[in-house]
Amino acid sequence: MWTDSIGRRRFLGGLGAGAVLASTSRAQNPILPVRKPRVVVIGAGAAGLTVAKALANAGNSVVVLEAKDRLGGRIDTRMLGGAPQDMGASWVMGTSMNNPVSEYLSLKGVSLQNDSVPYHMFEEGTGYLPQQQLNQLWSRFVNFTNMLPTLRSTLGPNANVNQGIELFLDTMGYGGISRERTRYMIQTEAETGYAGSIDDLSLEYFWEDSTFNGQVAFPQGGYVQLIDNLAEGLDIRLNTPVVSIDHSSRGAAVHTPFQTIYATYVVVTVPLGVLKSGAIQFNPPLPAAKTNAISRLGMSGMEKVVLTFDNAFWSSVNDLYFKSNVDGEFSYIKDMTQFSGTPTVVAFSGGDFAAQMQTQPASQLTDRLLAVLGSLNGSQPPVPTGSHVTRWGSDPNFGGSYSYWAVGSSPADNVSLAVPEGRLHFAGEATNELYFGTVHGAMLSGLREAGRILNSNVTVPDLL
User: Which of these, 105, 51, 99, lies nearest to 73 by C-alpha position?
Assistant: First the structure.
């Protein structure tokens, strides 16, 4: 696994409703094969644009339907403080050319900047901890991962990570402030890596996902470059939510509030949170194996508070473990100045605190982060030049940042989610049992489904 706390997980505007066709009665239009093969892709995120690009390049007629007014899905690059800032996916997880994100961006001439900065730890009420103490806490987390087989054997397959942490702390005999700090370190690694609460994360499958070799890095200019390159030349209709899909072995009909589109194939790439919400009705209903998988898999928010300034007034932030007096609050803070090109600080929160953030005013969260920066630096912070608070968990078009293995779920659920139902296909990070929760997992799922439809092996060069 990556030894970076976040590192594992780390515009078209006028299409959509402007080109609306008159809706047609379903009774008058039974599902029939269309004369010109057409594929409808639902969702214009990394998975949807990947499968659409591959199919379009192979000569298929492809339409991409996107409910939002922008491209990218959980990739959301915004100008803040005069520089591009990624509010969703940020890191390229492994610069090896085996990673489809690295390979595609390299072929498109997009530079990657390695993320290699010092780590610190600041404890509210205490101050900065010595580097030796931070190294010791990190080694305890490594010991926790090494003890996972024993912890699982003792607690059984239905244990959560929180129970595993408690057993580990008891077994090692940690008490007092040593126990508290060790718990913080393990919880932070778990909840910033997988977004879910340690009370929901499955101990049985914790730390079992796969990674690519190479550094973790940032695309210079933001992740939007991946999206813009994939989207080039595609027929994409923004502001077009899908409400239902009729599907059979003969074809499919995709119903939006504006029109019905008939297709040979449909590829559903919406986030797991949307599938959980039931926002899209499937006729006939999806089989139990798939609906059970959707129910069991976890989906949670990894939320950010992003602040930009005229100058970098802080010191010793870099990559900062922040042990707040509030459990899970801003547990990881990163100085993004050298990567974004403007003085920028980003605070990350996962787990239960990320859920609490959904109802807290943005001004309250930004003021709190300003106060934290003031305590780090021992001075009154200046007024930010820009600020943004993410709400992935409460946005009905996402329902969270990415999927994870919740208690009771397993990689088999990702596999079940990926199984096609006749002409109905599924892609997205949650359908990838090896690389869920990542952009490369999403891209790989798009290549997989394009290959299934084309009955051939589809690779990154097929996206050019």
Answer: 51
In tens, the pLDDT along 306-364 reads 999 999 998 889 999 999 999 999 999 999 999 999 999 999 999 999 999 999 999 99
The tokens for 197 are 């609460």
Q: What share of the chain is helix, strand, coil (3-state, %, to 5)?
A: 35, 20, 45
Q: Which domains does the chain have, with CATH numbers?
A: 16-73+222-299+402-463 (3.50.50.60), 77-103+112-117+300-394 (3.90.660.10)
d(CA 404, CA 207): 11
Helix (H, G, I), strand (E, B) or coil at 373: helix
Asked whether the bond before 411 is cis by omega within 30 degrees of 0, the reply is: no
| Cβ neighbours, 10 Å, residue 65 | 25
CA distance 65 to 42: 5
CB atoms within 10 A of CB 79: 10
At residue 185, the 3 state secondary structure works out as helix
Distance of CA 19 to the CA centre of its chain: 31
Residue 263 pairs in a beta bridge with: 252
Mean residue pLDDT across the chain: 92
d(CA 240, CA 387): 29
| pTM of the entire predicted model | 0.91
Alpha-carbon gap, residue 255 to 265, rounded angstroms = 14
Distance from C-alpha of 410 to C-alpha of 415, rounded to nearest angstrom? 9
In this structure, what token pair is assigned to residue 139?
């080694």
Range list of H helices, 94-218: 100-107, 131-146, 148-155, 161-172, 176-194
The closest of 43, 32, 22 to 247, measured between CA atoms, is 32
Please write down the long-range contacts of 412-417, taking CB distance under 8 Å and 24 or more positions apart: 412/293, 413/292, 413/293, 413/296, 413/297, 414/293, 414/297, 416/289, 416/290, 416/292, 416/293, 417/272, 417/290, 417/293, 417/294, 417/297
Burial class (CB in 10 A: 0-12, 13-18, 19+), 422: middle
Which amino acid appears at position 377 of this protein? N
Distances 105 to 91, 94, 108, 457 between C-alpha atoms, Å = 13, 12, 5, 20
